[in-house]
Specification:
With about 210 residues, this protein is α/β, with parallel strands linked by helices. The chain contains seven helices and eight strands; from the N terminus they run E-H-E-H-E-H-E-H-H-E-H-E-H-E-E.
């Protein structure tokens, strides 16, 4: 699996992300980290993500994981149509639940040996890949009650990477002050992490 991990939106190297895709330029856009906002705001955000990806020459389609809660086999068949996914930021705890309820997390683990599959995203969309979400409750609300979502918090990350990614570090972002507290928490608890300032990206393979 190829990874394009951005602190904020497309980052400073969007053309490098495009190069990761092979012949299949179809991208599933995962917006579930934004399920806590009003419908109109979520729609506007979705349209912006779609436009940004289209402008790069990709073919994005929103894939709402809520439609696949308890239907992991159906989700797997749908995802197999795409060359990769773009996972938007928002609330990492809501995103983690959506991934679990739909089986998206298990699908990603199965795709780790697929050298052509691309996982791309930013903010919460990259934080969720860590072994744990502990510490991120300092910036994202963990106890969020939403329709279709249980109250129980999932603290385990997807564990695709062996450290916590900390976006918006020392950036002109409203969450940057809280991010400093996340870094302190990770250091005190001796948890491995990497910081990303807005614009920075990590491009790698697993």
């Amino acid at each position: 699996m190829k990874l394009y991990l951005s602190s904020y939106h497309l980052g400073n190297h969007p053309q490098e992300m495009v190069k990761l895709f092979g012949n299949n330029k179809n991208v599933a856009v995962i917006m579930n980290a934004m399920d806590f906002v009003a419908d109109e705001e979520r729609k506007m955000s979705t349209n912006q993500e779609m436009t940004d990806l289209q402008n790069l020459g990709l073919n994005p389609t929103e894939l709402d994981l809520r439609n696949y809660f308890g239907k992991s086999t159906l989700l797997e068949k749908e995802l197999d149509k795409y060359g990769g996914v773009w996972v938007r930021g928002g609330n990492v705890f809501i995103l983690r639940k959506a991934m679990s309820y739909s089986g998206f997390d298990k699908y990603l683990l199965q795709k780790t040996n697929d050298k052509d599959f691309v996982y791309a995203g930013f903010s919460a969309g990259i934080c969720v890949l860590a072994p744990t979400l502990k510490g991120l409750e300092l910036v994202d609300r963990a106890e969020t009650l939403l329709d279709k979502y249980d109250a129980e918090i999932i603290w385990d990350g997807i564990n695709l990477i062996p450290y916590t990614l900390v976006p918006h570090y020392q950036s002109n972002h409203p969450e940057s002050v809280l991010i400093d507290e996340v870094v302190k928490y990770l250091e005190v608890n001796k948890m491995p992490y990497k910081t990303l300032t807005d614009g920075e990206t990590i491009i790698t393979e697993i």
